[in-house]
Amino acid sequence: MTWANGTEQQLQDARRELEAAERELTTGTEAARVRYARALYEADLAGRRADRMARDSRRQQLTWRPVAG
After folding, report:
1. Which of the residues 3, 11, 21, 54 could staple to 39 if both were Cys, CB 3.0 to 4.6 A apart?
2. pTM of the model
3. Over the stretch 17-53, which tens digit does the pLDDT of each residue have?
């Protein structure tokens, strides 16, 4: 598995956990609120990692262009 695939998988997992936590939030328990807060935080981190990976990938492609000679 490449780093890009791993990052994308983490993002998908974090989004699924956030959706599950949102559904559980309707119970109104403290545990549900903590799970939702943690899932929201993890989804944010995974989104930032994916954005950084995409940005770094584009930057590397621009940097390593062959020079016509």
Report:
1. 21
2. 0.73
3. 999 999 999 999 999 999 999 999 999 999 999 899 8
Q: How far is CA 1 from CA 8, 21, 51, 52, in A?
A: 11, 28, 19, 18
In the chain, where does DSSP find H-type helix? 3-24, 30-63
Phi (first) and psi of residue 54, to 5 degrees: -65, -40
Query: Residue 31 and residue 64: Cα distance in Å, rounded?
Result: 49
CA count, 13 A, side-chain hemisphere, 13? 9
Q: Is the distance from CB of 26 to CB of 38 less than 8 angstroms?
A: no
Alpha carbon distance 16, 50 (integer Å): 16
